[in-house]
Design brief:
mainly beta; two-stranded antiparallel sheet; two-stranded antiparallel ribbon; 1 helix; 5% helix
Amino acid sequence: MGMPINKPPLGYKLSEVGVIPEEWEVKHLSCLAEIRTGIAKNSNRTVSSPEFVHYLRVANVQDGFLDLSDMSKLG
């Protein structure tokens, strides 16, 4: 016999990443954000028209979730 499948709580659904709220969709990160590398935060490079964007720091990456309460900007 297989393992019993538990029904998610009311308002939640089972997805390929686990139990999530019913109104959420599972998407690849690349569909939601542009992922960039190669920019040094403290470089001496001058930018004529900087575009300020949020970026993740090590402090934002927690065990099993992202803490976005204190986001830094780069521009």
